[in-house]
Amino acid sequence: MTEHRDVVVVGGGQAGLSISWHLTQRGIDHVVLERDTVAHEWRDSRWNNFTLVTPNWQCVLPGYAYSGADPHGFMKRDEVYEFVRSYADSFGAPVRERVAVTSVQHAARGGYDVETTDGRIHTDQVVIAVGGYHIPTIPRFAEKLPESIVQLHSSEYRGSAELPDGEVMVVGTGQSGAQIAEDLHLDGRKVHLVAGKAPRVARFYRGRDCVAWLHDMGHYDVPIQDQPGGLGKRENTNHYVTGRDGGRDIDLRQFALEGMSLYGRMIDVSDTTVQFTPTLEASLDAADAVAESIKDSIDAYIARSGIDAPEEPRYVPVWRPEQEVTELDLTQCNITSVVWSVGFRTDYRWLRVGVFDGEGHPCHNRGVTAAQGLFFLGLPWQHTWGSGRFAAVARDAEFLAEQITLRVRESAAA
């Protein structure tokens, strides 16, 4: 027999659990399906020394918040995992672990048929809470590298000790790439870092964490349609910074002074020879410009609000490339491994409902799609910049819970 549930939530991470909390509070029948175990991505897809880049006080989920002794610190990987696991336990979330969803499609009798590895479930409403990072991206030209060079994606990286002896190339300077380069650098490995277009942000400025300033300024609350560039913001790379050792800037120029080799964008590979475009200096300047523009906004907010905050000198670049390298032989440099940190792509092949654009991205407004009863939660920039953070996931979940509750009441009254 086909099981029936009023709501099926796909995904048992913080997003799926957040909507589950709201549905539980409202007494709405539902089940959360998780293909692995609750919060497993925090444990299984982060490196050993991973830390959050957002302070612990921002770790707020519906009915639950960080309560440790270091609110201004940054939880490590295993602490984040336990935080989310404990959240599920705190309200007895109805999660079925190790149940994979193989398809979701419109049902002939209305609603949706959800096929799983544990049977079929018919439901009136579905919440897709699997995030937006599904399949690791590695450029096709990586296939040209010889088998003697170990290649792995940033999601597979765990630590320096698991890589072969020799020098390491890290490709990409988003949050993961910059932090992995730092991790290897601190462990004494010679690192070759291929820089992209990612912006950066200072960790602290004028006596506070920049996150705290931006939080007070309301930056995490501005709807995406009111942002410069509108929906195009969803394609933006996050600013690189670190929470390691209490938090600090990631300054690639300082790394270069300390012996890290930096390069512009990688464009091709031929056996052991790698080619780059001379974009390094422009990328470093652009990243610094973003960091300084954020400081400009903070300065203006402090002046406007009459806040007594200490003055702080502005950043002065400590290094510039004398001549950009456009070609490098990995063998001659003893580079024995490459860590690709160039992102992910989505994979919704199992979701057989027409709610996607031409590039395979969900079409939605705050998670609400044109297909009645089908919602998304936990997407980057789902509604605001804060949507990618614990606290705003909670807000996004509450909004969707209200939509779901309205539909349940309308159905009951029909």
Automatic annotation (TrEMBL):
The keyword Oxidoreductase is annotated on this UniProt entry: yes
Xref: InterPro entries: Auxin_biosynth/cation_transpt, CHP04046_FMN-dependent, FAD/NAD-bd_sf
Gene Ontology MF term list: flavin adenine dinucleotide binding; monooxygenase activity
Gene3D superfamilies: FAD/NAD(P)-binding domain
Keywords: Oxidoreductase
Coiled-coil blocks: none
Superkingdom of origin organism: Bacteria
Any Pfam family: Pyr_redox_3
Protein name (database record): MSMEG_0569 family flavin-dependent oxidoreductase
